[in-house]
């Protein structure tokens, strides 16, 4: 499941909608909507995200959050390390190989570490 798919399912279930009902309102098939929720489809098109925002009548921060989640929801990520250090290539390959063995807490910890390191580098001259 992708971040966008999880949020989409959450919104749908909060309103007690079936996949078929919601899909009909959005102009997509229930199969497509199910695949989107389960992370078996790529990043949704901009216009579909806008339809979701309008359909659920979300505004401001929640609408921006849906757009952000859609942008980071590609289930098939390619990390190019050409021209980078050997350590970059090793890390990218290891992460690709081991990602299925990590727990949600591991991702939160790694993400926090990455954010801390990047923030520190932005502050240094």
Features:
mainly alpha, 7 helices, 125 residues, 66% helix, 434 Repressor (Amino-terminal Domain), 2 domains
Describe it.
The longest helix has 20 residues, at about 105-125. Helices cover about 65% and strands about 0% of the residues. It is elongated and about 50 Å long. The chain contains 7 helices and no strands. It folds into 2 domains: about 5-70, Orthogonal Bundle (434 Repressor (Amino-terminal Domain)), CATH 1.10.260; about 85-125.
Q: H/E element string?
A: HHHHHHH
Strand coverage percent: under 5%
Would you give the CATH topology of the largest domain?
434 Repressor (Amino-terminal Domain)
Count of DSSP-assigned helices: 7
Radius of gyration in whole Å, from Cα? Answer: 18 Å
Instruction: Specify the CATH class of the largest domain.
Output: Mainly Alpha
Average pLDDT works out at 94
The main pleated sheet reads as: none
**CATH architectural type of the largest domain:** Orthogonal Bundle
Number of strands: 0
């Amino acid at each position: 499941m992708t971040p966008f798919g999880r949020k989409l399912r959450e919104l749908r279930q909060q309103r007690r909608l079936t996949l078929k009902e919601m899909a009909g309102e959005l102009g997509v098939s229930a199969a497509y909507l199910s695949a989107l929720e389960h992370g078996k489809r790529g990043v949704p098109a901009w216009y579909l995200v806008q339809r979701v925002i309008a359909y659920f009548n979300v505004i401001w921060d929640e609408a921006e959050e849906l757009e952000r989640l859609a942008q980071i929801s590609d289930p098939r990520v390619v990390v190019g390390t050409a021209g980078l250090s050997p350590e970059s290539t090793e890390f990218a390959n290891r992460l690709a190989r081991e990602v299925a063995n990590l727990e949600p807490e591991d991702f939160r910890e790694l993400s926090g570490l990455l954010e801390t390191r990047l923030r520190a580098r932005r502050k240094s001259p």
